[in-house]
Amino acid sequence: MTKASFEQPGKNLAWAGKLVRMEEAEEVLTSLWHLSADNVRISQNVNVRASVLNFVICAPDVESAQRASSLLRDLCSTHIARVILLILDSSESAPTDVSTWVTLRSFPIISDIMRHNFEQITLRLAGPAIHSAATIIQPLFKPDLPIYLWWLADPPHETSAFTYLAGISSRVIVDSDHFTRPEQSLAHLASMIGNASPWALSDLNWGRITPWRQLIAQFFDVPEYQQYLSGIYRIEIEHAVSTPQTTPEGNKEASYQINPTRALMLSAWLLRSLSWEIDHNHQRNVHNTATGEHTWYTSHSTGKLPIPTADGIIAHSGFGSISIRPRLQPELPPGTLCLVRLLSTVDNKHVTFTIDRADGADHALTSVELPEGTRHQRTVSLGQDSADVASTLLHDELEIVGHDRQYEAALNEIYDLLVEEQ
């Protein structure tokens, strides 16, 4: 194992605590606990110490590691016993190095009088030491406690620390909202899990689409609309993209910030909920990763559906379609869901169910367009759909024990959607 460069550390991470030799980490943490206990005895505070899980956060650089460390202040989870913040510095110029920092952190539970404490060990690995990351951190785990891994970047395709760390973890958490290769990374994750996977997989983006899934389900909680569920034949989903950059010649580049993962997840959930099957051989399927636009034609186990045509004649087809397209909304984070529209027809009655985000706000307008032309509208809050609530989403994931089968099934469906693109 490479020794830490204690005398000449590569970086001074004041936010990470005290710089120590790795073999001294346990001893220094023990002294910090003793100091904390002394402070409690001379104050009115009550320390709460829980030992429930090891939480490993794997970051690609110091900046993302610091953001994750700051987010822990708002996490408010009393489950964490020890955080191991692992920084994998893969820059070519970085010399082989293992640097270690330790600190004791706390946050108020109910008020500032009662505080939860947990340990944080930060390691920065550089050079060839990265390839031994899993071995290096192994002695730092609290024994007999589950390991939860939060991987902050795209999952690497090659055999790496990710594969090993996932293998020893009970749960792996990612956030596809920050993937640089979202569609490829989702497909890769889907290929790694299965019904027999020893580790569970979670994605913070799955939590972001929960309000949209709930709103869609609420349409059909109304007895009057339930008959139209089996008549759905077209689904349209729009996701936000940012403003394109301009070249020196004044031409618009196709360089939108594109991340259709939320739209893909919602599509997968709808496909499974409706028992639709993708026709991968359909000539009108569209796959454009560069623009985030996709269209799939589907077959339905319910048989042929009546479809309205342009001349008003009712045709019949055993196919439906689901499409994803970008919407230019620079005020929204790329990938934010903007619109969901379900078109249905039953007994020559045509109904459109719509959820439309209102001008980038945190609320949406839902409407139902009925055959008689009336529209039932209401404004609803999208709750925790914002990317600003990562701490809340992460807290919810730490509460889960075992596999999130609904999410994993949706991820497998995404793999089926994207398999033709790989």
From TrEMBL:
Q: Which InterPro entries match?
A: G6PDH_assembly_OpcA, OpcA_G6PD_C, OpcA_G6PD_N
Pfam annotation, one family? OpcA_G6PD_assem
The chain positions of domain Glucose-6-phosphate dehydrogenase assembly protein OpcA C-terminal read 201-411
- According to the entry, every stretch annotated as the Glucose-6-phosphate dehydrogenase assembly protein OpcA N-terminal domain falls at 77-190
Name of this protein: Glucose-6-phosphate dehydrogenase
Q: Which organism is it from?
A: Ktedonospora formicarum
